[in-house]
Amino acid sequence: MSEPKRLSAPVAPGGTIGILGGGQLGRMLSLAAARLGLKTHIFSDEADAPAYQVCDTHTHAAYGERTALETFAKRCDAITFEFENVPAETVAIVAALSPTSPGARALKTAQDRFEEKSFVARLGLTTPDFQAVDSEQSARAAFATIAGPAVLKTRRMGYDGKGQAKVTSADQAAQAYAAFRGAPCILERFVKFDYEASVIAARAIDGQFAAYDPPENIHENHILRRSIVPSRLSRRGIEKAVSLARAIADALDYVGVFAVELFVSGDALMVNEIAPRVHNSGHWTIDACLVSQFEQHIRAVAGWPLGHPGRHSNAVMENIIGEEAEHWPAYAARGAALHLYGKPEIRPGRKMGHFTKLTPLS
Amino acid sequence: MSEPKRLSAPVAPGGTIGILGGGQLGRMLSLAAARLGLKTHIFSDEADAPAYQVCDTHTHAAYGERTALETFAKRCDAITFEFENVPAETVAIVAALSPTSPGARALKTAQDRFEEKSFVARLGLTTPDFQAVDSEQSARAAFATIAGPAVLKTRRMGYDGKGQAKVTSADQAAQAYAAFRGAPCILERFVKFDYEASVIAARAIDGQFAAYDPPENIHENHILRRSIVPSRLSRRGIEKAVSLARAIADALDYVGVFAVELFVSGDALMVNEIAPRVHNSGHWTIDACLVSQFEQHIRAVAGWPLGHPGRHSNAVMENIIGEEAEHWPAYAARGAALHLYGKPEIRPGRKMGHFTKLTPLS
Question: Which of the residues A312, A341, A356, A362 would you substitute to probe the B interface, choosing the one with the greatest number of B C-beta atoms within 10 Å?
C-alpha cells in the first residue's frame, strides 16, 4: 500500500474537495465549501444521496469499488469523509492518490469502541470502566469485574443507540452478547451523570487548534434531541473539556473537526465517545458563529487557517426527527433558522433537519 | 401569450426552484434554497456559471431558446431570476408554465430607468429630477430644463456605472447621447447627498412585508465597496425608508426580495434605483441575520412565510473585486465571514467575493 499523500499547499478557490458519504453531514460540508469558492465531489453508495443536490460532481458507487475510488481521488485536491465507518481499505486507496484527512490512525481509533476507550485511558483521561467482550464467558467475567449495571455495545458500527443493550446481571450480559451474534463487544459501566456535553473542535495540519463553546446535549431514545449553548459547564469545566479534546487531537495528529462526547458530574468529566467528523451537536455553529463547524472542517482539510470559533449568540439547536418533518410549515413559521436535509423519504428515527433558535449572549 | 401561472400551494421541501441566471446571486440563492431542503435548477447562457457548482440541475442555453425554456419551466415548481435584465419574452414563456416571481410588471418597471423614475414619482416619492432623452436635440433640451450638472444614463441594461456619463453642459449632454449610439436615455439631475443607503425588503404573495435594517453603502468607481449596518439613518429615517419601500412593493404587487437605493441628505430621502432582486448591499444578512436575503427571497418565491429580518449583530460587508481575489489567503485569515463566488476567471471590476465582519449590536 502506498504512503498517504500529503497536502503541499492549501487548496486554492476553484479546487475540489472530495467527500466520502452523501448524507446531511456531507451536504452541509458541501454548502460550507461552496461559501469558500471550493467545489465538492461527493462519493456515496446511495443512489439518491442528499448531498448530490448541492455538489459540483458526484460518484455513485460502492465503497469497495477500487476503480471508482481511484478516479474520484484523482479528481480531488483533498479528501475527507462525513462518517467514521469508512472501510480502512477505502481510505487507503484514496489517501494514496489525494491528501485525505482525518488520517487512518484517527479512523482506526474511533471505529472501534475498545480501541477508542483504551486510547483515551492511555492519555490519562477518565472513561467509564470498560472490558472487551468476545464470548459469553468473557461477558460474564466482564460484568463481574465491572461490578454494577453496565451497557454492552458492539465495538464497531453502532450509532444512535443501535448495537447497545443495558445489562444488570452476568446472565443478561451473556445473553446480550449472544444477541449481537458474535460481534466483538465492549462492556462499559453504566455511569450516572448530571448531563451530557460535547466539545466540537478543529485541528489544522500545523497543529493550530480551535474549539467551540461546548454545548449541553439532551438525548431522547438514544438520539440527540437538543444542543444548548451555553451549557451548564463552569468556566473551569469548559477549560478542562477543551484541554482534554486538544490532548486527544494532538495524540492522533488529527486534522479536521471532531467531537468528544462527555458525561458531566459536577466538575468531573468522563469521555464517552470520540467522533472523527463534524457532529450533530455542533449544528448550531452554522447560525451562531461566524465560521461553522462545517466550514472549519473544510478549512482544516484544505490546509487553510482555521476560523475564529467564537459565537455571537446563545443557541438552542433541535433535531427534526422522522415524521416530525411533515410539520415543516410550522417550523418555517417559527422564527428559528431552519435546515432541512433534502432526504427523499421520511423514516422513523431518521434525522430530517434541525432548527436553531438564537438569543443574545447571556 | 398565456396567463402567468399562479402558485396554488407552497413549494414543499424536495421541490425545485428554477433560477434564471447563474452568477453569484444565483449561487447564493441556490445555497439558501438548499438549507430549506429545496432543489434548484439554474438556467444560464454561460458555459461555466458559478451557480452550476451548487445546484441540483442546470441548463446551459440562450435566454431566447423557447424549447429549452419550456423544458426548464416544466421541471420547476416555481421560478425566479437573479438579474433584472431578463428579456420580457423569456419571462413570459416560463411564467406561463411555472409560477414566476417577481412578475412582469416589476421587471418592466425596473428594466427601464425612465419607467422606473416615472413610477416612483407617481407614488409621490422623491427622485432626482429627470427627463427622457431620445435625440441630441432632446438631450440639449433636457439639460436646459434640469438646469445644472446631470448624469446621462441609458434607460436599459446599465449596472456598476456602465452606460452613464456625467455632463455639465448642453453640448456635453448631446455628445454623451451620441456616444451611447442612439440608445434611449434618461438625463438625471446630479444630486448632492450626505451618503447612500438602501432598503432590502421582501414581500410575500399574501402581501406580508419584511425589511432588513437599511445599510449605508459606500461606492468606489461606481461599484459597491462596503455596506455598513447600522447606517447613519435616524430611527425616523429608517421608518421613512422602509415605508417608501413598502409603498413601491405594494404598488408593483411585488413578490420576492428587492432593493431600493437611496440618496440621503439629512432627513431627506431620494429614490435612486429599484433592483427587483437580491442585492449586493444585502449580502451582510447571510452572516448577521437568522434568515438571509437569499433565504427570504426563496421563501417568498416558494410561497413560504417570510422569516424574521432582525439582525443579531452589527455588520460591515466589503466586496472583493477583481484581482483582490488573489489575496484570498489574507482574507481567509482575517476573522471575517468569507464568501468566494467560484468564478473561473478574475477580471477587472468583477465581483469575486465578499467578506463580512460582525461586531456586537451597538
Answer: A312
Chain B, nearest residue to A32 by Cα: B31
Q: How many contacts (CB atoms, under 8 Å) link A and B? A: 109
Residue A340: its chain B contacts at CB < 8 A?
13, 35-37
pTM beyond 0.90: the answer is yes
3-class secondary-structure state, position B32:
helix
Residue A114's Cβ-count burial label (10 Å; 0-12, 13-18, 19+) is: buried
**CATH code at A16-100:** 3.40.50.20
The Cα B277–Cα B202 span in angstroms is 9
- Residue B321 CA to residue B310 CA, distance in Å, equals 28
Partners of B291 on chain A (C-beta within 8 Å) are: 337
**Residue among B34, B336, B342 minimizing CB distance to A37:** B342
CATH class of the B129-189 domain in this structure: alpha beta
- Please give, rounded to a whole number of angstroms, the shortest distance from the CA of A295 to a CA of chain B: 10
Find, among B298, B265, B234, B239, the residue nearest to B13 by Cα. B298
DSSP A289: B
Cβ pair B34:A53 closer than 8 A: yes
**Rounded to 10 degrees, what is the CA torsion of A232, A234, A239, A243?**
-50
Quickly count: other Cβ atoms within 10 Å of residue A85's Cβ.
Answer: 14
Q: What is the arrangement of strands in the sheet containing A164-167, beginning at the earlier edge strand?
A: A130-133, A185-189, A150-154, A164-167
B161 band by pLDDT with thresholds 50, 70 and 90: low
Domain spans, chain A: 16-100, 129-189, 195-360
Q: List the pLDDT tens digit at each of the 362 positions of chain A.
A: 578 999 999 999 999 999 999 999 999 999 999 999 999 999 999 999 999 999 999 999 999 999 999 999 999 999 999 998 899 899 999 999 999 999 888 999 999 999 999 999 999 999 999 999 999 999 999 999 998 899 999 998 766 667 789 999 999 999 999 998 888 999 999 999 999 999 999 999 999 999 999 999 999 998 999 999 999 999 999 999 999 999 999 999 999 999 999 999 998 999 999 999 999 999 999 999 999 999 999 999 999 999 999 999 999 999 999 999 999 999 999 899 999 999 999 999 999 999 999 999 98
Q: Count the Cβ atoms, other than its own, within 10 Å of residue B240.
A: 19
A131-151 residue pLDDT tens = 999 999 999 999 999 988 999
Superfamily (CATH) of domain A195-360:
ATP-grasp fold, B domain (3.30.470.20)
Which of A339, A360, A361 has the CB atom closest to B35's CB atom?
Answer: A339
State the angle between helix axes of B104-111 and B88-95 in degrees (0 to 180), rounded to the nearest 10.
170
Return the residue in A35, A55, A283, A320 with the most chain B beta carbons within 10 A, the one to mutate for interface testing: A35
Q: Distance of alpha carbon A104 from its chain centroid, rounded? A: 15
A164: nearest Cα among A148, A152, A149, A180: A152
Joined together, the cell numbers standing for residue A184 give 466483538
Q: What is the pLDDT of residues B302-332, one digit of tens each?
A: 999 999 999 999 999 999 999 999 999 999 9
Question: Are A41 and A59 spatial neighbours (Cβ–Cβ below 8 Å)?
Answer: yes
Report in angstroms the alpha-carbon separations of B117 from A218, B148, B164, B182. Answer: 56, 19, 16, 20
Which residues in B326-342 are b (16+ Cβ under 10 Å) and which e?
eebeebbeeebbbbbbb
Residue with cell 473539556: A241
With residue A115 as reference, give the H or E element that holds it: helix A113-122
What does the alpha-carbon distance between residue B56 and residue B30 come to, in Å, rounded to a whole number?
9
**Amino acid sitting at position B313:** S
DSSP symbol at A81: E
ipTM of the complex: 0.95
- Say how far apart CA B179 and CA B113 lie, in whole Å: 18
